[in-house]
């Protein structure tokens, strides 16, 4: 678990630095990192972790007190929770001390309140040409965005 924590922290730091440097401004879904980009961030982090042999899937849940609020985090196949966007909810849904910027471990307080309508989703495959879902074997717009943002983040790793 320590390796996963180190990798997740390194990846979060790379995104944060790219964001601070304005490198993600062209990608509106990442312009407010970590807010409102948890699903795309999960796809990116899943790709990074898979390069180290750590396979994951996404868990999506709805907030128990407000069906308009959703959150997405990663789970390894042996149940380790990995979340690098949970801090968007600090002092909004839970006190700041209950939410880690980079969470790796068992399900935390934040994940427990996103308990409604839970669904397991596969990560978007965006680096394998055999997985492209766009027109004529090209990447879909989502896959292209993920490739572009991943390339930027990798410059900070």
Could you please describe the fold and organization of this structure?
With 157 residues, the protein is an alpha+beta fold. The protein is 32% helix and 20% strand. A five-stranded antiparallel sheet has the order 4-3-2-1-5, with helices on one face. The longest helix has 19 residues, at 2-20. The protein is globular. The relative contact order is 0.19.
Write a short abstract of this structure.
The protein has helices at 2-20, 38-50, 109-113, 141-154; strands at 56-63, 66-76, 81-83, 103-105, 116-121.
Fill in the keyword field for this structure.
single chain, five-stranded antiparallel β-sheet, 5 strands
How many H/I helices? 4
Give the biggest beta sheet.
5 strands, antiparallel
Query: What is the helix fraction of residues, given as a range?
Result: 25-40%
Averaged pLDDT, please? 94
Strand content: 15-25%
- Give the overall form: globular
**Pattern of helices and strands:** HHEEEEHEH
Q: Give a count of the beta strands, DSSP E runs of length 2 or more.
A: 5
In which order are the strands of the major sheet placed? 4-3-2-1-5
In whole angstroms, the N-to-C terminal distance is 20 Å
Structural classification: alpha+beta
Low-confidence stretches: none
Q: What does the secondary structure layout of this molecule look like, with pairings?
A:
Elements: H1 2-20, H2 38-50, E1 56-63, E2 66-76, E3 81-83, E4 103-105, H3 109-113, E5 116-121, H4 141-154
Antiparallel strand pairs: 1-2, 1-5, 2-3, 3-4
């Amino acid at each position: 678990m320590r390796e996963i924590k180190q990798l997740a922290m390194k990846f979060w730091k790379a995104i944060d630095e790219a964001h601070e440097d304005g490198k993600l401004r062209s990608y509106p879904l990442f312009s407010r990192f970590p807010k409102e980009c948890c699903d795309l961030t999960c796809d990116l982090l899943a790709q990074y972790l898979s390069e180290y042999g750590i396979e994951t899937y996404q868990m999506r849940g709805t907030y128990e007190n407000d069906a308009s609020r959703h959150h997405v985090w990663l789970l390894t196949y042996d149940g380790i929770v990995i979340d690098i966007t949970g801090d968007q909810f600090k002092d909004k849904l839970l006190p700041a001390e209950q939410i880690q910027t980079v969470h790796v471990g068992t399900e935390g307080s934040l994940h427990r309140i996103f308990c409604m309508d839970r669904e397991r989703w596969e990560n978007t495959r965006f680096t394998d040409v055999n997985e492209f879902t766009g027109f004529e074997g090209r990447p879909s717009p989502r896959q292209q965005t993920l490739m572009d943002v991943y390339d930027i983040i990798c410059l900070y790793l």
